[in-house]
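Sequence and fold
=================
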Amino acid sequence: MERLDTLGPAVLVANHVSWLDPIILPLVLRRKPAVLAMEELWRMPGVSIVMRSYGPLAIPLRRQAVDTTALRRAVEALKDGAWLIVFPEGGIPQTGEVRPFHRGAAMLAAKAGAPMVPVAIAGTADALPLGRVIPRPRPITVYFGEPFSVPRGDRDALGSAVERAASEIRALLAAASMGTAR
């Protein structure tokens, strides 16, 4: 968490293995973040209340096509100084492993001139695995990687940035499983 204390706007990119991830991550942050999330969440009973509680900091994203309105709002939130949470895998994998990231998070960071921060969330898949409705008491830990800048550039630069974030998240999760994460 100390890595974020002096950080201005940033794109927090996190792994996503459970419905608990978007609940846990904002809870550990020291300020209310903006959240880019699939628009379906605004139609789910219970979840819609949480999404609406974020007000303008909750940005619904249509996933069927490039949602320029959502992307513009996300860049505006970053330029206003927000931390923006993005789960760049685009969904929850069945295997629990980190899937390839979409480039959108890197594009937002580059466009806003904000760093990306890799975030590894460990324990949520045990606490609330897919198919379960009520969470079980399990330890959950959130690890923050080193912020890094994303150069404006071509698709290769964006691809390199998201792969760097994914690699660091995998390393943080591996260290967590061995008890060596810091």
Q: What stands out?
A: The first strand starts at residue 10 and ends at 14.
